[in-house]
Specification:
Elements lengths: L1 E7 L2 E6 L10 E10 L2 H7 L10 E2 L3 E9 L11 E4 L2 E2 L5 H4 L10 E2 L11 E5 L3 E3 L6 H4 L2 H13 L7 E5 L3 H12 L3 E5 L3 H9 L4 E3 L6 H8 L5 E6 L4 H9 L1 E9 L11 H7 L2 E4 L7 H9 L9 E6 L3 H10 L6 E5 L1
Parallel strand pairs: 11-12, 11-14, 12-13, 14-15, 15-16, 17-18
Antiparallel strand pairs: 1-2, 1-4, 3-5, 3-9, 3-18, 5-6, 6-10, 7-8
The chain binds nicotinamide-adenine-dinucleotide and zinc ion (2 copies).
Length: 338
């Protein structure tokens, strides 16, 4: 079978390797169909992901069709369209016991810590495979995983109907957060320095658009909320200054959700946090979000296919990554047909 492998930092190839076989009776074999390219795949390619080892088959936004099932598999059958939940946990540490396996001490992500789904065939435990509706096309199914990241942020920020939510960054993740916040009945303002992405966010229902290069973000959020400030702020950029901004634009009793992995320090005065009694939290991967997000996709509520701006074939994987590298303003989600 063919697979998309980062051999070492800077060297991505489509390689030939042996196809995996079912070993455990609770596993399924999947003919992979689609892979979305994510910012974290780019980090692995650049040697900037501390968790990745090389060579590594990448791909965690992946889906395919079941071609074989183990003897103990009950919920899935040959021919089912499925999406992969690309994460494993130990089941024993404090996080796991708290029902938060996404921050397990030993969490492993397929495509990062272990071999991913950017390949023609993959074997997975039944428990990490979610059946999706027959009527969905692969382009849509490829978006389910990033939408679970958005869903987790909405959950962590306790977004409620009528809340004013400010999302910093209209990249694929910020846009997934936008759609999920709108689904929750919130009003949403979103910022980006890329006008094309802002225009797309407007199409997806954003109530207010802010370009920080053209206007003062604090003033604009204040105006948009009639002086109250945002009840929930989601930082989907992850720079030291966006973390500072996120805290500065809050209302009283607000929630601030951070998604970035930057190691640089932000400068924040405690008084602003205490006085407003802010809840500041991280949001990493997802916990139990696949079920509800798959349900939303199945019921055709979302209409999100247009997030995919470019599609490539497996043998064009290098071109697809090159396009991501060039960061054209009109590029949103790039997918590879496997
Ligand atoms: N926590 C998680 O589980 C998780 C999962 C996936 C991605 N992420 C993180 O989420 C972030 C967003 O991911 P993405 O794939 O959408 O990235 P992306 O790079 O495609 O999008 C980021 C967007 O932010 C915009 N931007 C840059 N500076 C800005 C500023 N000062 N104000 C407003 N917008 C600004 C960019 O123009 C771009 O459109 C990244 O930090 C990524 O590492 C976290
Ligand atoms: Zn991703
Ligand atoms: Zn654990």
């Amino acid at each position: 079978m063919k697979a998309i492998q980062v051999k070492e930092p800077g060297n991505l190839q489509v390689v030939e390797m042996e196809a995996p076989e079912i070993i455990h009776p609770s596993e399924v074999k999947i003919r992979m169909k689609v892979m979305g390219i994510c910012g974290s795949d780019m980090h692995i390619l650049h040697g900037e992901n501390p968790f990745a080892s090389y060579p590594r088959v990448i791909g965690h936004e992946v889906a395919g069709e079941i071609v074989e099932i183990g003897e103990e598999v009950t919920a899935l059958k040959v021919g089912d369209k499925v999406v992969i939940e690309p994460m494993t946990s130990c089941g024993e540490c404090y996080a796991c016991q708290q029902g938060r396996p996404n921050v397990c001490e030993k969490v492993e992500v397929y495509g990062v810590h272990r071999e991913g789904g950017g390949r023609e065939t993959m074997v997975m435990p039944e428990s990490l495979v979610h059946k999706v509706d027959e009527s969905l096309d692969w382009k849509e199914i490829a978006l389910i995983e990033p939408f679970t990241i958005g869903a987790q942020s909405i959950y962590r920020g306790q977004v409620q109907e009528g809340d004013h939510v400010f999302i910093i960054g209209a990249g694929p993740i910020g846009l997934c957060c936008l759609k999920m916040a709108k689904q929750a009945g919130a009003k949403v303002a979103i910022s980006d320095i890329n006008e094309k992405r802002l225009a797309f966010a407007e199409r997806w229902g954003a109530d207010d658009l802010i370009n920080p290069q053209q206007e003062n973000v604090e003033e604009q959020v204040s105006r948009w909320t009639s002086g109250m400030g945002a009840n929930v702020v989601i930082d989907a950029v992850g720079l030291p200054q966006t973390v500072e901004q996120a805290i500065a634009v809050t209302s009283v009793a607000a929630r601030v959700v951070l998604l970035g992995f930057d190691q640089k320090f932000s400068e924040i005065a405690q008084v602003g946090i205490t006085k407003k009694e802010l809840t500041i939290c991280g949001s990493r991967l997802q916990t139990h979000r696949f079920g509800p997000v798959v349900e939303m996709f199945n019921s055709q509520q979302l209409h999100v296919e247009d997030l995919v701006s470019h599609q490539y074939d497996l043998n064009e994987a290098k071109e697809a990554f090159q396009l991501m590298e060039e960061a054209h303003p009109e590029v949103r989600k790039v997918i590879i047909k496997l």
